[in-house]
Amino acid sequence: MGTKARPHEKLAAYRAKRDFAVTSEPAGGTDGGEPAGRFVVQRHRARRLHYDFRLEVDGVLASWAVPKGPTLDPKVKRLAVHVEDHPIEYRDFEGVIPGGEYGGGDVIVWDRGTWTAHKTDDPAEAIERGELHFAVRGEKLAGHFMLIRRGHDGESWLLFHKDDEDAVAGWDPEEHPLSVKSGRTNDEVAAAPEALWRADLPAAEAEVAVGAAGHWPPPAEDELAALDALGKGGRWSLGGRELRLTNLDKVLFPKTKDRPEVTKRDLIRYHATVAPHMLPYLAGRPVNLHRFPNGVERKGFWQKEVGGTAPDWLTTWHNPEAKPDRSETYAVLDSPAALAWAANHAAVELHPWTSGLRDVHQPDWALIDVDPGEDTTFAEVVLLARLYGEALGHLGVEGMPKVTGQRGVQIWVPVRAGYTYEETREWVRKVSKAVGRTVPELVSWEWYRDRRGGLARLDYTQNVRNKTLVAPFSARPAPGAPVSVPITWEELADPELRPDRWTVHTVLDRLAETGDPLHPLIGRAQELPTL
């Protein structure tokens, strides 16, 4: 037998198929110093659903793609396609691989545990020979298995369970769909991944927390004190990331009769402090930035392409489908430091895509925008929003309203993975037409504002890839720094409600008192009823 290949040599095929500037998968190359004998099965929805069966062998994960998944039924033999070895760091990966990349889709840790080779003391040689006997002890799988190569292509194998005390007749992996790591389904992980991998970082640092509020701690008091102590600019560290801040005393939002002015330093402080609440709507998805470097009283501009001055720790996404004259590399704001970076660039408005990196063609929110006309009163906006609430309630669909911080109300409806933008747009269109027929005197369907006769538009057209609405808790470009804030349906009846009721100075008090009513809908795998 020849000299064994080293882990970095065994991973050559794995690396050749991936662009690590795009995918969040780990590049591998380190062992981590942990004991051998581990296995993992990952349920992976790429072009087709399959289970990735991986055994730790000689410092890498020997891997087979099993389309129908492993079973404990000894009478069933499963096709297992031998694929390239994967790095040890991949063992705990649960999240999304960007669409357009090799293996793009969502991944959960379906089972894991330890394994032992039988009838050989050299598993690598047994795999090369084409016959591996082994036993596993996982949280779902247990007992003795065999992997046997069939044919001469080297890729097609059979995986089956031996008839031992752990065998179970009729055992179906699809009846056990939950992750052993998080207890979640693929749908839930796809809609709200709790971790991303940064392939440009060492494997030990590659896991970046994303997901539900609370995963990102607010800034410490000494971090805020350091921000306050800076002069007009300087270096600031937040959450272990260093930022270069400039023009901190620049007034971005002028004062109003009852609201103070807001400087860039104030906006940076707000972004850092609101991060645990805002990041669940931003992490894991591209974002468009509406920047106002000269303040909101001057015309701003949209920035999608991340420039070369971005810090190397900033997570980015490369759009493999971008045309030469279009934006290719987008920011993915997934940490308090990333939000502070955006604020330092006077990104007043943050507009996340409603689809994530799992598959940017599949939205996980359906959006309804009650866009007031010149003559529309806020009372009429509220009436239209409440009619939507009644329609959704009648259909058994959950959604939540959000005041925009300007004049309107938006309604965010979570959807399961698998819908296209065309499907969500058509569904919202049908609901909107039904609402509009109820009060036709308030609604115009004209696209151009100057043709609407001052009436409101029930806008369903925002349900398009790279066409966005403002994120919850983002500031809006108006004096006093109003903020877009999720509210409950009951709050629409509050006589004190205004679309710009809360500002960067007051919304944190609201969050401390009432929380975020939209947050429980994040990742909700909701079916839209046929209309």
TrEMBL record:
This is Bifunctional non-homologous end joining protein LigD. Its EC number is 6.5.1.1. The keyword Ligase applies. Residues 42-149 form the DNA ligase D 3'-phosphoesterase domain. It comes from Phytomonospora endophytica. Residues 263-517 form the DNA ligase D polymerase domain. Keywords: Ligase. InterPro entries: LigD_PE_domain (IPR014144), LigD_pol_dom (IPR014145), NHEJ_LigD (IPR052171). The lineage of its organism: Bacteria, Bacillati, Actinomycetota, Actinomycetes, Micromonosporales. PANTHER family: BIFUNCTIONAL NON-HOMOLOGOUS END JOINING PROTEIN LIGD. Pfam families: LigD_N, LigD_Prim-Pol. It is an enzyme of class 6 (ligase). One of its GO terms (molecular function) is DNA ligase (ATP) activity.
